[in-house]
Amino acid sequence: MTGLVYKSTGSWYTVKSEEGVFMECRIKGKFRIKGIKSTNPIAVGDLVDYELDETSDVTTGTIHHIHDRKNYIVRKSVNLSHQMHIIASNLDYVFLLITIDNPPTTFNFIDRFLVTAEAYGITTILVFNKIDTLEGATLDEQLYMQHVYQEIGYQCLRVSSTENKGVEELKGLMKDKITMFSGHSGVGKSTLVNALEPSLHLKTKTISEQSKQGQHTTTFAEMYDLSFGAKIIDTPGIKGFGIVDMEKEEISGYFPEFFKLKDQCKFNNCLHKEEPHCAIKKALDEDKISWTRYNSYLKILEGDDEHYRTDIYNDDRIASDETRNK
After folding, report:
1. Which residues are registered as beta bridge partners of 231?
2. Strands 231-234 and 178-182: what pairing?
3. What is the three-class DSSP state of 16?
4. Dist. CA 200–CA 325, nearest whole Å
5. Cis omega before residue 236 (within 30°)?
C-alpha cells in the first residue's frame, strides 16, 4: 500500500492511504536513505509504501520504501552537529513567519533559513505576522525588512490573524498545495492555522514577557487537510538554524542577488571578502546590496552556528541594527 506521512513522533508515523484511511506505521529494522545522514529517516510529507501487520489486536503498518523526494528542508540536529533533521519533504511552498518584537526575528535567522531553502530547491514566501501590533519604530522596521526581501525577489505577505488581514490572500496561495509554516516559537503559526481553519483548534500559548520568546506548543511536525483544498504542515518553533553541509565557495550562490553578480568577480573562487575586483563588494559600496544580507553572509561563511543556536535574540539583533545603520 502507498500513503502520505502526516505525522512523525520518532518511532511511529501516521500515514494516510490513497483511499483516505489513516494508519499508524513503524519502520522495519534500520532504514537509511543513500547520501543522507539524518536523525529521522522518514519525514512528514514523504510518500511511502507500507505493508499491513495484522498479527496483533490492533492493525498497524510497516514502512519498507520511501518514494523519491522532489525536495526537503533540513536543519542541524541540536545535539549531533554532523547530522541533520529533516523537517518536512515534498513541499510546494514554505511560509516563514516573521514577527518584529513579539518575539524578534532577526535578519540572520531569516537569511539562514532562506539559504537552506534555496539549497534544497524550496520556494519560500515571507509572512510578516501580527501586523496589527506594529506602530512607530516597529512598523518602520517591518516595512524596511519587507523592502529588503522584495528587492531581492522574495514574495512577502503582511498578515494579522486576529484582524483577518491577509488571510484570504494566503489561502489563495495555499490552495491545492502542500505547504509548511515555520519560524520561531511564538510567531503565531498555530494561531494563523486556526484562523485559516478554525475547526482545527490547534494549541496556542502567549509570549513570555521576560524573554520575548515563544513557548513551544507544537512538539513534532504534523500535516493537516484544510477545507479549502490545501495541506499544511505545522512544525515546532525553531530557535536556531544551522547551515548544513555547504562549502564556503557555494554559499554566495544561495543569495540570489549575489549569484547574479558572481561571474563579474575577477576570481572564480572569490569569497567576496578582501579579494580585489569583487563585484559583490562593489555593489555593496554602491548600496545595490543590503548590508544586512552581507552581514548574514559573513556570519554563515565564518561558521558560527554553535554561537547562533545558543544566543539567537540579543547578539544577532544588535548586529542587524549595526549593519543597518552603516
Report:
1. 178, 225
2. parallel
3. strand
4. 43
5. no
**Whole-number percent of the chain with pLDDT over 70:** 78
Element (H, E) at 152: helix 137-152
Helix axes 314-324, 291-302, angle to 10 degrees: 140
What digits encode the pLDDT tens for the residues 276-292? Answer: 999 999 999 999 999 99
Q: Which of 8-17, 120-129, 195-204 has the lowest mean pLDDT?
A: 195-204
Phi, psi for 164 (deg, rounded to 5):
60, 35
Helix residue ranges per DSSP H, the chain: 107-119, 137-152, 167-174, 189-196, 248-251, 256-259, 279-285, 291-302, 305-310, 314-324
Q: Residue 165 gets which letter from DSSP? A: B
Question: Would you say residue 217 has pLDDT above 60?
Answer: no
> What whole-number distance in Å separates Cα of residue 79 and Cα of residue 83?
9
Which residue(s) pair with 158 in the sheet?
Answer: 128
The pLDDT value recorded for residue 9 is: 80
* 247 alpha carbon, distance to own chain's centre: 21
Q: Which residues contact 113 (CB under 8 A, 6 or more apart)?
A: 96, 124, 182, 238, 241
Beta strand 22-27 with 47-53 is unpaired
Q: How far apart are CA 52 and CA 23, in angstroms?
A: 9
Distance of CA 91 to the CA centre of its chain: 11
Count helices and strands in the chain by DSSP H and E runs: 10, 13
Q: Which three cell numbers stand for residue 248?
A: 564556503
**Is the separation of the CB atoms in 5 and 15 below 8 Å?**
yes
Residue 321 pLDDT greater than 90, yes or no = no
* Inter-axis angle of helices 107-119 and 291-302, nearest 10: 70
